Amino acid sequence: MLHDRLLVEPETDSAERQSTAGLVIPATAVGPKRLAWATVVAKGEHVRQVDVGDRVLYDPEERAEVDLAGRDYVLLRERDVHGVAERDEADGSTGLYL
């Protein structure tokens, strides 16, 4: 990867979602614009805030898709990342910073 680019593998979105009240929301339902999670696979030499293996939050509308060896990846700039979830090695919990 070059410069401030990140190569991420998007998490697969299930066909249906469930609300906190227990209602099933079908995949065809149009709702507000949602951000998506992905795992960083590779990073450029000028990326400072994100490491390989981190989960990142990004806008799926502003992305460039690439197919490598039959797998779908997304190419992002570091500035397009909205948040990073890091795993705390001490207790295994996940912390989120924006």
TrEMBL record:
SMART domains: Cpn10. The keyword NAD does not apply. InterPro entries: Chaperonin_GroES, Chaperonin_GroES_sf, GroES-like_sf. The keyword DNA damage does not apply. Residues 1-20 are annotated as: Disordered. Transmembrane segments: none annotated. Keywords: Chaperone. This is Co-chaperone GroES. The lineage of its organism: Bacteria, Bacillati, Actinomycetota, Actinomycetes, Micrococcales.
